[in-house]
Amino acid sequence: MTESNVMLITGGSRGIGAATAIMAAEAGFDVCVNYASNREAADEVVRRCRELGATAMAVQADVSNETAVVDLFEETEAELGSLSCLINNAGIVAPLQRLDEYSVERLTEIVNVNIVGAFLCAREAVRRMSTKHGGDGGTIVNVSSAASYLGSPNEFIDYAATKGAMDTMTIGLAKEVANEGIRVNAVRPGVIDTDIHASAGAPDRVEALRGNIPMQRGGAAEEVAAAILYFTSDASSYVTGSLLNVSGGR
Which CATH superfamily is domain 6-243 in? Predict the structure, then answer.
């Protein structure tokens, strides 16, 4: 890690993002919890981080909005200091549908949040952390999905495609900034027990898919968070451009 241990987590108020924030606080990071709309949930994550001794804050921002993203990064650094780690976690799914049922509104929203948002946040992180821009280096961890290689037929192949884009961005950006003190990696969670499934209209999806998972169970958000924290630690100092599946063998 760089001298500054400041982590910004997009979509940090619930699920994998919240678990990562709490684990990061335990590891000695100060944390900015970005959230889209649920202030109460974000404040609870901040409270738990502070109980662990971290300086923590919550900032509302729509990651698909360029002005909001720039403001998010500026507010984080003004309050916590120089950024050393971005967890590119914010993402949405739409209700389970086949492609022949998609509306352009659905596609536009998911692309704007999951692809444009991820790129905007990575851009702002690079502008601050890259030695080319006077920064001290740092790490970016993209939260992709096993959907990127499974395709998610009859569920949400649009979501899967956005995660495929994130995988490609991870590989390309890692090579682009490897000599500028920044490591870029991704985790690809499988079926994880969070409320994202309810967002897709399938609250029982983890149980329904359990039989298709070699380990015969869904994963916990904390298991993904542990993989994310590995990529932010000195233990992964020679690792960049890697895609790590956290999917129970699926």
Answer: NAD(P)-binding Rossmann-like Domain (3.40.50.720)
